[in-house]
Amino acid sequence: RPDVGSAARERARAGDTLLCALLGIYAASIVIEGVLRYALWSAGLPNALYLRDAIPVGSMAFLMLRALFTDDRVHLAIALPAAALIVHAAWAAMLGVAFFSIAFGLKILMFIPYGMGMWPIVRRRMRSLLDAAAAFLAVTLTGVLANFVLGQLPWEGLRYETAFGDVSTTRMWWLAGGIPRLPGFARTSFDAAMVLGVTGVLTLVRVRGLALQLLVGCAALAGIVLTTSKGMSLAFPLAAAVVMTMQRRPGMDMRW
């Protein structure tokens, strides 16, 4: 029946939009994690940040259940890697690995099935992804530049207790010679470098015109250099060059 099918598609689109919004919230929490941890500590809620992990877990559960009950299928892109993680976690438990270590490993690796499940949804909203990347680039670059101009920011180096032990808002460390590794609004300098590199490349895809692309690329690279991240300082210019070349050669196409 056409009306039933149309209503189902509308519900699916609404669900996908909500999942993308939650993904955006999670990504934003990484972009400003240093500031966010400081604010939550100041409010007496040091453990509240861990609630964000409900976003990937809940999103994967929703996608699995929707595929099972709506499409009568198993969402293999999530089920297979998730099953591999569960098997390895069980194996680690049998070997006597500490529960916290197993839980931390699952927390880190759960983004593999989460990303595989979310990519088809995000891909249909590529313009929104590129807009969000440009915003995250601007925020992260502003934070790193502020860190460079103003020196140590209020949230840098603060340590406090949580349910998972002693943690810090941001990591303070230096290169030889006392050169600081600047995190800006992020938690660590390499987090800031990662955000600048990934969002910088995505913003190059979004903008048009050689002059504007060079401006974006140079700004992102300057921010990465200030974080002193050597890996991203090497990787970003190569990725940027590939993007800019592919956009200017008719025989080459960026497949999203």
Please give the share of residues in helix: 55-70%
Q: In percent terms, what proportion of residues is strand?
A: under 5%
The strand order across the widest sheet is 1-2
- How large is the count of helical segments? 10
Mean pLDDT, to the nearest integer, reads 89
* Apparent shape: globular
DSSP strand tally:
2
> Ranges with pLDDT <50 over ≥5 residues?
none
The gyration radius over C-alpha positions equals 21 Å
Oligomer: single chain
**Secondary-structure element order, as H and E?**
HHHHHHHEEHHH
User: Largest sheet, described in full?
Assistant: 2 strands, antiparallel
**Category by helix and strand content:** mainly alpha
Q: Kindly report how far apart the N and C termini lie.
A: 33 Å
Task: Throw out a few tags for this protein.
mainly alpha; two-stranded antiparallel ribbon; 256 residues; globular
Explain what the structure shows.
With 256 residues, the chain is mainly alpha-helical. It has ten helices and two strands, in the order H-H-H-H-H-H-H-E-E-H-H-H. It has a two-stranded antiparallel ribbon with strand order 1-2. The longest helix has 30 residues. It is globular. The protein starts with a helix and ends in a 10-residue tail after the last helix. The model has no long low-confidence stretch (mean pLDDT 89).
